[in-house]
Amino acid sequence: MAFTKKHKIKMVSDYETWLNKSQAVFMIEYNKMKVKDIDALRAKVRDTGSEAHIVKNTLMLLAMKNAGYENLKKVEGTLLVGFAFNDPPALAKVFTDSSKNSEIFKLRGGFLEKQPLSMEQVKALADLPPLPVMRAILLGVLQAPATKLVRTLAEPARSLAAVVKAYSEKGASQAA
Fold first, then answer.
1. Does 103 share its domain with 35?
2. What pLDDT score was predicted for residue 74?
């Protein structure tokens, strides 16, 4: 289907908007696709708070150049591009899982904060724990020194209270 120049300008504008809003962009090449396969992948992508779109490569290249992306060799073939607006590792996990045992999808790489990522780097990003788990780990690390400080400050008073209690129990048992 041929696009008019007006339509192409709108498409480039949409691509640029998605690129500027996203923290990461991942690309997956598809062949022999069926609509149900694409719909299933898009549903998983939506669950991560991201979007996936089939793009026209020449227009995507133009939008990426306009948005400041470098090393655009990954934009080849028939591509489905995922735009991670919130949680890049979650989208990377969806894309790597989809391409693992599939003849339809092949991971092409991606970009994180406009820096190119190889397939291995995307897979390493996918292996990271989800964002809520990482936040919990960080919170635990930050709370550990404060917890130790509170224990250290409270220990002398706790020891003194134990001595007073033992002395009072000793006095009560001698009186009886």
1. yes
2. 65
